[in-house]
Write a structure and sequence with these properties.
The protein is an alpha/beta fold and 337 residues long. 42% of the residues lie in helices and 18% in strands.
Length: 337
């Protein structure tokens, strides 16, 4: 039976509509394959495990569903210098503020990176003593770390931000005990006489210690918790006198994806992400995060402002051309980086 003119016109319309739908599907398919954005995260060594969870959770959100990541971890100072030297980075997190300041001075991070209620910080921690299970040497004071025969592990302060926190914790603890600056400096010299390995990052120092070297590891609290979570037979002690560690984060002004980078940074400050940090041993920078109440508060907790801030500390203690730690390291034959 021959189709009528009206039926022929209707068929043409359906064919045209079907063609349009196919065309739209192809365009959408092409667009979908090119809509992915890759962010480069460059960070110091220890938050690597936390970021595995946090990045996965972020990618489940509307803001992160089309974002992929490349990640680089290492000693804080080395990572900062690498970004300054051209390593691509959209988001940077370091162990301490001077490594961020280096990028501000290089016009790679905006000067206002540390505004806001968190002052640019994303996690906190404290310096602790990590010892073998059962604490066989009975370590319970800073003086114990300088006794004959005690082998101490800490990273190199000219490559690792964690090592600089360790130095300032040890120095500040002496002042908290009523000692003079000269006595505190001598304590650092005595302490580093007992240091048997100086790796270039905090994570490598942890690996050295869990590999069987040393009696005491100076470390971030979160590193000790991480090691326990991995089943390592060790304990850690939070000293009465220790320093508050504050870790900075920022997006770079050179990022090719500033909106996505900012969305990720905003996510890092959410309760969900902060709780993930807590589960990985970090103290949160926002109030009311579940699990934060389990962290002990040292009776004599101090921060870097006790020594004039990082600008003064960097020149006095860590200038490779002449400083407290440069003299100590050179005196025991250790490279400055």
């Amino acid at each position: 039976m021959e189709a009528t003119e009206g039926e022929r016109r209707m068929k043409k319309r359906w064919m045209a509509a079907a063609g349009l739908l196919v065309s739209m599907g192809l365009v959408a398919g092409c667009g979908g394959s090119s809509d992915k954005t890759e962010l480069s995260l460059v960070a110091y060594s220890t938050p690597q495990e936390a970021y595995k969870q946090i990045i996965g959770d972020f990618q489940k959100t509307d803001a992160g569903k089309d974002v992929e990541f490349s990640e680089s971890y290492g000693g804080s100072g080395d990572q900062s210098r690498a970004v300054e030297g051209g390593l691509a980075a959209d988001v940077v997190e370091f162990s301490l503020e001077p490594d961020m300041t280096r990028l501000v001075e290089a016009d790679m991070v905006d000067e206002d990176w540390n505004t806001g209620p968190e002052k640019g910080m994303i996690t906190d921690s404290v310096v602790v003593w990590v010892v073998r299970e059962g604490n066989p040497l009975g370590i319970d004071s800073w003086d114990d770390l300088t006794q004959d025969g005690v082998e101490v592990i800490t990273p190199n302060p000219f490559t690792s931000g964690g090592a600089r926190w360790n130095v300032m914790a040890a120095y500040g603890a002496q002042l908290e005990q009523g000692k003079t600056e000269e006595e505190a400096t001598q304590y650092l010299a005595d302490l580093f006489d007992n240091v048997v390995v100086q790796d270039d990052s905090a994570r490598k120092s942890l690996q050295t210690f869990t590999g069987g070297k040393g009696d005491v590891l100076l470390a971030y609290e979160n590193e000790a918790i991480f090691a326990q979570q991995q089943g390592e037979d060790l304990e850690y002690i939070v000293p009465d006198e220790t320093i508050l560690i504050e870790n900075p984060v920022a997006i770079t002004s050179t990022s090719e994806h500033p909106e996505e980078a900012q969305a990720f940074l905003d996510y890092l400050r959410t309760e969900e992400a902060q709780e993930a940090f807590v589960k990985n041993g970090y103290r949160p920078t926002r109030d009311g995060v579940p699990g934060a109440e389990d962290f002990p508060t040292p009776s004599a907790l101090f921060d870097i402002t006790e020594f004039g801030g990082w600008s003064d500390v960097s020149s006095t203690f860590f200038d490779p051309d002449g400083s407290v730690m440069a003299d100590i390291e050179q005196g025991i034959g250790v490279s400055l980086g």
